[in-house]
Amino acid sequence: MIFRAIGLMSGTSMDGIDVALIETDGETVAAMGPSASYAYAAADRDLLRQALADAAGMTDRAVRPGVLGEAELLVTRRHAEAVQRFLKDNQLSPSAIDVVGFHGQTVWHRPEQKLTVQIGDGQALADATGLRVVYDLRAADVAAGGQGAPLVPVYHRALARSLGEGGSIAVLNIGGVANITFIDRETLIACDTGPGNALIDDLVLARTGGRYDADGALAARGRVDETALTRLLAHPYFEQSPPKSLDRNDFRAHVAAHGGLDAMSAEDAAATLTALTSATIARVVERLPRAPATWIVAGGGALNPTLMRMLSTRVAPARVETAADVGWSVEAMEAQAFAFLAVRALSGIPLTFPGTTGVAAALTGGVVVTPRAKAKTA
Fold first, then answer.
1. Is 12 annotated as a binding residue?
2. Which of 46, 190, 242, 328 registers the highest number of CB atoms within 10 A of its CB?
């Protein structure tokens, strides 16, 4: 059965909400519909950053310390507004949509403690939009001993099958954290590789007040501090084999202690952090059965020419393309993936696998909710 599904993604870069529509049976993608991105206001981003800080050290995923309760209300409200605006902008009736896949905002991720926290009230979103919602898609995997991330590899595999190409492919998403899916026929291996854009974004915000390094221009004007890069690459995470996953802020203390960025110009610091992202992606090749022949890159990092150039150099002679080069979406792929995952959850088919999250056996997940009837008023 083909479902029309909307996927929602508010990623680790915290720049806004991506919305995408696909038609799928949860195994193949019948059609890709429209997509859009709705930016958070500066005040929203400030609140989410404070929520990340207040979430540090959480041991109970049900509690909401500090501003987390306020942030959860904000996340839910902004997602409802995004869905409503998306439907209006694309002249879609809610009755035409079968399900919404709602990721929420990750604020704390500690799978070794069987803990992952995504804020966002799925039931409230269903009530506000009048649509069936699938949310909390990581929790079942983490509870079963998996990493809970990355979740998108099964969607990457569905897309890769449509290419009809032989040989091994790496689908790389560079958001706040970078993650890879290695696909070779039915072999599926995935992990978070290390920092994506998060460290670069934080640096740019601190040094210039900007949201990100637009077009990689800041890094392009700088020089990589190779000595600092070597120190940063000594982090034990980079020696671990897949599957493995990260929290957005896992490397902040490491970089502060060993990066020496305060002594660098903004340009050199940006260049060094961009080199760190590319180098940690390339190092994953050592942990794969074979080097990918082709890399297909999505996420905000695909729009950074400096990062793409560094990556191409490090993984040569492999071919490096953007998702757009093969007819996919650079910016909407993760939102599409959560639409795809929602349909799989409705059908009770697996979202995660031993090779993607380390869970013992293929596992489905997610919580399905439908809109509650509104009380009648006299």
1. yes
2. 190
